[in-house]
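Before relying on records like the one below, remember that each one covers exactly one chain. Contacts with other chains, cofactors or solvent are not represented anywhere in the record.
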Amino acid sequence: MYYINLQINVNNIKDHIMGGISLGKLVVIAIVIALLFGTKRLSTIGEDLGNAIKGFRKAINDKEQD
């Protein structure tokens, strides 16, 4: 008889889902982005993105109320 091994390695699943990007790699990427754009410009981009998301949510909520 043949038996199927259904043992699942959780670490392999995490690596597959995250694309193999570890926390250390994410930190290095964040530092490089901060050096390229500067912290002031990044905060402006973050603020603009937040305002855009708020506007989008408000538009959806207004449409649902109509």
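The chain has a mean pLDDT of 79.
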